[in-house]
Amino acid sequence: MKNMQKTRVPMKEAAPNVRNTNFEEVALGYTEEEAIAEASRCLDCKNHPCMEGCPVSVRIPEFLSLAAEGKFAEAYAVIKTTNALPAVCGRVCPQENQCEGKCVRGLKGEPVAIGRLERFCADWARAHSQHTGSPKTEKLPENAPRVAVVGSGPAGLSCAGMLAQNGCRVTVFEALHAPGGVLVYGIPEFRLPKSIVSAEVEALREAGVEFRCDTVIGRSYTIDELQEEGYAAIFIGSGAGLPQFMGIEGEGLCGVYSANEYLTRVNLMKAYRKDAMTPVLRARRVAVIGGGNVAMDAARCAKRMGAEEVYIIYRRGEEEMPARREEVHHAKEEGILFKLLTNPTAIHGDENACVKAITVEKMELGEPDASGRRRPQAVPGSAYEIAVDAVIEAVGTRPNPLLRMTTPGLESDRRGCLVVREDGVSTTKEGVFAGGDAVTGAATVILAMGAGKAAAAKILEGLGM
Ligand SMILES: Cc1cc2nc3c(=O)[nH]c(=O)nc-3n(C[C@H](O)[C@H](O)[C@H](O)COP(=O)(O)OP(=O)(O)OC[C@H]3O[C@@H](n4cnc5c(N)ncnc54)[C@H](O)[C@@H]3O)c2cc1C
């Protein structure tokens, strides 16, 4: 029976004043009864607009209809046919701009909570010991083609999974000590528990994928050396991990971090644990510059690391913030202070060259710029200082230039993104493919996964498999 409630079934969350002191997951997921009630809100409309909104075309009405009948294993199996990482996507995809943004129920109420239901099915399958990753492959013949994947973020993982399923011997080379890319070094535990990412990586291992961590391609081996080694194809999914800075006075002071460094120390290097040896400044007052998901994650981590005051400093207004609405909402609930239409102009240090304050000026929005967003302009005479002990800059990242600098024939554009041909995945170097943030610049998990799959399909086609 259809559930015609206009509002979605709410999902329980940890209380803001409790969760902002620990790193446990904020959103607690649906129960089976709640999942059935929410899935029953789907009208199964004729043209399936929700599927158009999904970059990997998950068969949404089909899995919702199975979930509405309580057939969770079957629902999960449907999702897995097109999405290799549903437990991840159900948690971090910007569904409001994708599937849920197109849901017909959203016209006269709230859209069906597709992301929450995707998460529910994946969690249910994991809890009931269903296989969470790629199906096991038979032992591969010695002469199976070898493919190298550079980077183990969502692009690399989805590419590796599809290649392994189709009979390739895949080696994933990862610069860091743990696989997962941004899913492990950037997105905090309280949004995406790392056990979920490791389960996916383990499933790929079981499917025959080899992971070689602590291996920086371009340093440990070059792309040319991998080709000489006999890898029939190479996929580059090296992301966009090079932080950008604003270029203002004081960025060299002690206590100024890029968000990537700060999040890596806190998340990947577990600085939040009492037993961790990772050094990180436990500041009392923190300014986070930026308005995207990365800024929200950094601010919420800083709060959990014990800061009393954490400011988000963003030069446009809340409407223009690129962060997901949910992340902004959670950050506000947790006590993060928003200084909108505010732009930093200098960071000041004390006699020990440690951060002591930041100067900001007020902004107003003028005419739209090339991005279509209204351009912020400084209000003359509006500058003032905020006392802080740490500044975290989350103002964007670019691909690291190492691979293009060490690989003759591999071209990149002026933003440092790898150039791909019309097929969207072949680079300018024969036998080398690329996808994810390394090609698009900082984007989303689901787009990186889609690119990894598209590249795998192209590689398999080239190998005649
Ligand atoms: C803090 C943060 C929060 C985010 N939140 C969201 C969100 O809520 N929702 C969402 O959809 N997206 C989010 N994103 C964006 C999303 O995570 C990325 O778009 C996505 O991870 C890109 O995937 P990728 O596989 O291309 O690259 P990455 O995830 O960056 O993985 C690339 C991997 O390649 C490795 N590598 C790089 N160079 C080399 C080399 N030379 N040799 C070997 N290995 C190398 C890196 O160490 C890394 O592990 C967030 C990003 C950040 C930083």
Describe what this molecule looks like in 3D.
It is a single chain. It contains 18 helices and 16 strands. By secondary structure, the chain is α/β, with parallel strands linked by helices. The chain folds into 3 domains: 16-127, Alpha-helical ferredoxin (Fumarate Reductase Iron-sulfur Protein, Chain B, domain 2), CATH 1.10.1060.10; 146-241 and 398-462, FAD/NAD(P)-binding domain (3-Layer(bba) Sandwich); 245-395, FAD/NAD(P)-binding domain, CATH 3.50.50. A 5-stranded parallel sheet has the order 3-2-1-4-16, with helices on both faces. The protein has a 5-stranded parallel sheet with strand order 6-14-7-8-9. Strands 10, 11, 12 and 13 form a 4-stranded antiparallel sheet that branches. Strand 1 (146-150), helix 9 (154-165) and strand 2 form a beta-alpha-beta unit. Bound molecules: flavin-adenine dinucleotide. Flavin-adenine dinucleotide binds at residues 92-94, 150-156, 173-176, 181-182, 186-187, 216-218, 237-239, 241, 263, 293-294, 297, 400, 402-403, 436-438, 442-446, 448.
